[in-house]
Structure prediction request, 168 residues.
Amino acid sequence: MDLLDFLPFTVTWVSILAQIILTFVLWSNYYEIYGLVIVGYIFWGFSILFGFLPIFTFRIKGSIPKDSSYIKTTKLVDTGIYSIVRHPQYLAGILWSIALVFISQHWVVDILLIPVIIATYLITIKANSDLIEKFGDDYRNYKEKVPNLNVLWGVILLLLSKIKKESR
Prediction:
């Protein structure tokens, strides 16, 4: 891993770690809008969902060699969570960061969301090129059908494709 690969990961995790520490150190809920705290916990729940579902999905559908990490898939997985977004675990990091913004309601935590989003997006660009190298045209076709990180657009596209199939 060279510096250009390492830097976005470092920026993302340092920013999220700083958000976590600041959220619990500054646990002030500056604006005291408790409804936003609930929204934050909802985002947190979705981040956990998007963080763990890929592990199970890859283990079931990814043709992983025995005694290997779940990320050592030998088959392109485009079903389940991967039919909605291409990088659910990176999305989980962004959702976690957004959750901390709502929970803390502090401007410093808000500002740290920006590098998390930018660095994570850069990470996915590199991941996409690595996956094209690994899976070739199958991944290129998959890229055309499923968004990178936009879960809302992914759900809309999935629903539209199901409606299209049913109308045939």
User: Anything to note?
Assistant: The CA atoms of residues 86 and 148 lie 5 Å apart. The helical segments are 3-25, 34-61, 88-104, 107-135, 137-145, 151-166. The chain has a mean pLDDT of 90.
